[in-house]
Amino acid sequence: MIHHRFKSAYIVFTGLLFVMSGCISGPPVSPETHRQELIAEPAPNAYYYYTEAQILKNRGDTEAALDMMRQAMERDPETLYVRRELATLYIQNKQEAQALELLQAILQDAPDDIASLLLTGRLYQSRKELEKAKTTYEAVLNLDPGNKNVYLLLGNLYMQDAQWDEAFRVFEKMTANFPDAYSGFFFLGKIHKERGDMKQAEEAFLQSLSIEPKLEGARFELIDIYAKTSDSAATRRKVIRLYQEILEEDPGNARADLGLALYYHRTGNDSLARQRLQLLADTTPENDLVRYVFRLYLEPGHNREAVFLLKEILRVRGDFGSLHYLLGLAYNELEEESLAITHFKAVPADSKFYRDAVIQQAFHYSENEQIDDAIALLNEALDNDPDYPDYLIYLASLYEEKEAFEEALVHLKRATEIAPENERAYFRLGVVYDKMDRKEDSIAAMQRVIELNPDHANALNYLGYTYADLGIHLTEAENLIRRALALKPNDGYITDSLGWVYYKQERYEEALAYLLKAVELVADDPIVLEHVGDAYLKLDNPAKALEFYRRSLSVRDKDRDEIVEKIEALENRNF
């Protein structure tokens, strides 16, 4: 046991050495006994295993370190530091449940141990148990109000959950305890801004800049505040000065370059906007520009701004052909289809976006019921790029739409030959086989999808529903569909599938509950509505069955004969 920290073990061990070397008096021993005592090694103790664990941990062998630390704890189960180190190693080895159990035991014995509380808080945070993480960090601050990092951890957790009052309390306390905490003032500014108090937000951001003049984020926040307030000459000067300060500190800051160009454009100074963009285009690689514009403008949905920037950059750098693809995406979102197509067509063949641009064009043709044009485009693309599976898969889907299943099959089989790990190809193959009434082939294809991706919810559902519809392997069908529903709990079609499995198992009450829930999720699907009617009929409620059969017929475009027969049979019954 090493109850008095590990130095006590060292003292004991040193004392033993003195005894063994004869420096401390004791009863006389024979020479042979003395020799054996000198040769014998002391049994490993907790300190030995702890030290070995630290060496292994520093070498990066955390698994072996964990084993050593367990042995240290076995020999000294009470020492706080050993237990905490063991919890740390559990975390490093992704054994979070064991770590949490050990940390909770530690905190029962030592509820004020800050290091263990911090470990527990971070563990809760990594496990997305955020309320528990908040409670734990609050406990740390009550014990140690001088822990600056915990204010940041806790305050940001409250901000993530839009608990602005709680976040404000934390950051206000942080700045009171640490008047030089620029990050605290920055987050106070963010909270003021979220509350709509722009004056207070401005003051907080300016305070953070006075403490840390290089703080880029505070300048962007101030720019946003000023740009949304009065459009006066003084405001314009402030915005432009802030952009320029960012660029002086970081000349390659694309966010500032693009933002300043847009600001010039918005305030009617297009010549300065073009100068800024020309300078940016001349000094920035094409791929970087693609990344910046996508991340800063397209992804957040600022499509009009993206259009201006991309058109102006292309005006001075026509060789940046990949930007046409981004322009096409922007026009797509703005529902300006003809302009989108124009720019997708302008993407050069050597661009990494060329294939995607072809697919986008084919999609536009398809959406506008120009299926033959889409097929012609993809066939032409395949002539130049015969081994690209996405062309084959999308072309097959177009043939499938035309019910040209044999043609679809040819292209999907080719896709699986080229890309035997492509789950999309096998999934579409399974669907086409099903439409051709080749059930065994469809089942094999769906099994292959699940083999490639056990969490492919649509394949799990498709296979489970196929089994149910055929009335085979009903237990397996239920398991497959339950797995799919766990992955997509609010999917109406998967919910319907589970109801249909229960129907096939003659569990009609359970079937009806799930089928009615499916109708809530997909109200106008004719098959789902028909299934509800079937369940009501089995439960001896022909009036409700007739109601749902009629609803099914009203939204059914094809395969109407069977549902008409069901309706007529019920209408002719005397109930």
Oligomer: single chain
Beta-strand content: under 5%
The overall average pLDDT, rounded, is 90
Looking at the structure, what is the overall shape?
globular
Tally the beta strands. 0
What proportion of the residues is helical, as a percent range?
over 70%
| Structural class designation | mainly alpha
Can you tell me about this structure?
- The protein is an all-alpha fold.
- It is 76% helix and 0% strand.
- It contains 33 helices and no strands.
- Helix 20 (337-345) runs antiparallel to helix 21 (354-367) and helix 30 packs antiparallel against helix 31.
- It is globular, with a radius of gyration of 35 Å.
- The N and C termini lie far apart (85 Å).
Write the layout of secondary structure elements.
Elements: H1 5-20, H2 31-39, H3 46-58, H4 62-75, H5 80-92, H6 96-109, H7 114-126, H8 130-143, H9 148-160, H10 164-177, H11 182-195, H12 198-211, H13 216-227, H14 233-249, H15 254-266, H16 270-283, H17 286-298, H18 303-316, H19 323-333, H20 337-345, H21 354-367, H22 371-384, H23 389-401, H24 405-418, H25 423-435, H26 439-452, H27 457-470, H28 474-487, H29 492-504, H30 508-521, H31 526-538, H32 542-554, H33 561-571
Helix pairs in contact: 3-4, 4-5, 5-6, 5-7, 6-7, 7-8, 8-9, 9-10, 9-11, 10-11, 11-12, 12-13, 13-14, 14-15, 15-16, 16-18, 17-18, 17-19, 18-19, 19-20, 20-21, 21-22, 22-23, 23-24, 23-25, 24-25, 25-26, 26-27, 27-28, 27-29, 28-29, 29-30, 30-31, 31-32, 32-33
